[in-house]
């Protein structure tokens, strides 16, 4: 048994769930149609460039969770899963997860997207363990703030280290699948780093270091 770690956005999914949630909110008229769209697109570009200010991003991305009731958010998320996520679940990604599951490996998603968005997606994929940005909840409602270390870039490594200590597990024989150069810090920690449909920066690193490169797209 080994640990099989998966990035989510543009790895097991053919979309970025954080950005897709923003687009969904815009379609529902739940956020400012101009300012939020500009911010949503800008933050995605910053992420892809490796220049994202994670705290500035979270201040904008988590605000709608505080502005709407848990009941409304739950109803929206069901619609979001059907319209924005289900069509982007990659069958070959599910096959990859199934292969690790059949070997008895421990399955874990580590994502920079928040748990509200990704918890149901991980459940849909049959992956019980999830490290994600943790939105703060007080008296049953989201506050619009995050708690703890955001699971982004080096923060993914720190969160994983804490998770391993809590589970009494190690990275012996571990795998990590990711598309993004933002995940280099974590890719360097595992025994089997795998670049999945990698961005140009990650592809260059993977080719230089002899890492496995795969595609889960049709």
From TrEMBL:
InterPro entries: HAD-like_SerB, HAD-like_sf, HAD_hydro_SerB1, HAD_sf
Keywords linked to the UniProt accession: Hydrolase, Magnesium, Metal-binding
Any one GO molecular function term: hydrolase activity
SUPFAM superfamilies according to UniProt: HAD-like
Pfam families: HAD
PANTHER family named in the record: PHOSPHATASE RV3661-RELATED, PHOSPHOSERINE PHOSPHATASE
Identification of the protein by name: HAD-IB family hydrolase
Protein source organism: Halomonas gemina
Lineage, opening ranks: Bacteria, Pseudomonadati, Pseudomonadota, Gammaproteobacteria, Oceanospirillales
